[in-house]
Structure formats: C-alpha cells, structure tokens
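### Sample
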Amino acid sequence: MALSKEERRQRIKYRIRKKVSGTAERPRLSVFRSNKQITAQLIDDSEAKTLAYVSSLDKGIVEKKGTKIEIAEKVGAAISKKAQDAGITEAVFDRNGYLYHGRVKALAEAVRKAGLKL
C-alpha cells in the first residue's frame, strides 16, 4: 500500500535529521510550511534551544501583502537578519522533509542573499 503524503514526509524528515544537527556556532535552520503560513527557526540541538524564530504571522511581515513565495522570501530575510544580530554567520539547512522547491527554496535563497551561509 502506498504511503500518504504525511508518512512520506515523516520518513524523509527522519532521514534528514539523522545527518543534520545544529550547534551554537552553526545552528540548524528549520523550516515549517503549512498551507497558509511559513515559519523558520534557528535551533541549537546540543542545548535544545531555539536561538531565533520568525513567522509569516509576525507584525512586520503580515502587514506586507504578496504571494506565498514573496512572503517566504521576507521570512528568510528576517531570520537572516535576526541571526546576524545574534552573531551567527553560518547555519545548516533543515528542509524538514519538504521538497526543495517553491516556498522552501525561496526562503533558503533569501537567507543566503541576506548574508547567512547555508
């Protein structure tokens, strides 16, 4: 029997998380994408702490209108700015089981463009 979308994503997620882990110097940039919103957070897995968090529901981003891809780019730029303010220059990208295209790709490229190394 075929896997559902959620089961398939969960398997991919576990496969990614076996290899990707964040530290204080190089945290993990985790992306969550729902049908309407997108969030990104920088996580230090060694201490299980979230270092920075940005959502498409944040005040500065929600006020700006645009397509979901444009909003994902704004979230990427905002998380990159927060990371740089916290003194973080590098991160490892965790796409969280999502395919690397569309909003996830737009967010990652916006993060790189804003100066954070992935």
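The chain is about 40% helix and 20% strand. This sample (Large ribosomal subunit protein uL18) is used throughout the tutorial notebook.
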